[in-house]
Automatic annotation (TrEMBL):
Protein name: Uncharacterized protein
Length: 33
């Protein structure tokens, strides 16, 4: 269970990182999300 909790935490952090990366890319294209 500890391993799964750790994996989930890492995946959520990665998801937030990717979301921020996408927002930056959209801003470059002229979209403000």
């Amino acid at each position: 269970m500890d391993r799964l909790t750790k994996e989930l935490s890492e995946q959520l952090a990665e998801g937030r990182r990717l979301e921020e990366e996408m927002r930056k890319n959209f801003r470059v294209l002229g979209y403000d999300l």
